[in-house]
Amino acid sequence: xxxxxxxxxxxxxxxxxxxxxxxxxxxxxxxxxxxxxxxxxxxxxxxxxxxxxxxxxxxxxxxxxxxxxxxxxxxxxxxxxxxxxxxxxxxxxxxxxxxxxxxxxxxxxxxxxxxxxxxxxxxxxxxxxxxxxxxxxxxxxxxxxxxxxxxxxxxxxxxxxxxxxxxxxxxxxxxxxxxxxxxxxxxxxxxxxxxxxxxxxxxxxxxxxxxxxxxxxxxxxxxxxxxxxxxxxxxxxxxxxxxxxxxxxxxxxxxxxxxxxxxxxxxxxxx
Length: 271
Description:
Blueprint: E1 2-8, H1 12-23, E2 30-36, H2 43-53, E3 57-59, H3 69-79, E4 84-88, E5 93-94, H4 98-113, E6 119-128, E7 134-136, H5 139-143, H6 153-158, E8 168-170, H7 174-177, H8 187-198, E9 200-212, H9 226-236, H10 240-250, H11 255-268
Parallel strand pairs: 1-2, 1-4, 2-3, 6-9
Antiparallel strand pairs: 4-8, 5-9, 6-7, 6-8
Helix pairs in contact: 1-2, 10-11
């Protein structure tokens, strides 16, 4: 069984297209487990309508209110007992074979590494606008990111190349991603780096998601150029406390090493 975990917040505008694309997957043995983070629009009514039509859609009971996307996702992860866990945004569209392709890769990894090894798989995305017109066929190309750095956890810790909406992890990975102890990091960055450090992470160099950009994305895709990287560079020194926390939490690295990796990896994005 696979649990697809979704955190919603005032997402009614694009939510139906996302849920429809998940329910239409060619692999059907999953639950779509949703935690609402305090929506005030029509999100809850929309979710209740889907629940009435398809038993695979589950809305969790939660009275903790608005936690923000990071902590909302970890609430969902903590409650899941599925063999494999995927994360979903509320505003994208999944390609029809997203689950089956990702599952095939993680099952291959399980055969090679065993079920006791924390495992993760991520993929590329196609960047689209609000009406799903293509901006770039590859998120990695658009962002000038190299997914190969995921094989070096210290580089991955310095620069995230993993979009959470493409992630699949196994149940064993929960033991290394919980508890979430650096809240300044995005949830996908933390998950990817922890699994890369303690287990194995791999990627599919093909898109599985239409990554919708509409101006209200929590993170989103940004066209990378000198101005963008300049803005990132200006914030690096301000993030030194996060590097110190990361070095203390992960061990076998220093804040200086992470800072150096970050600078070098961003300079490489300009070439």
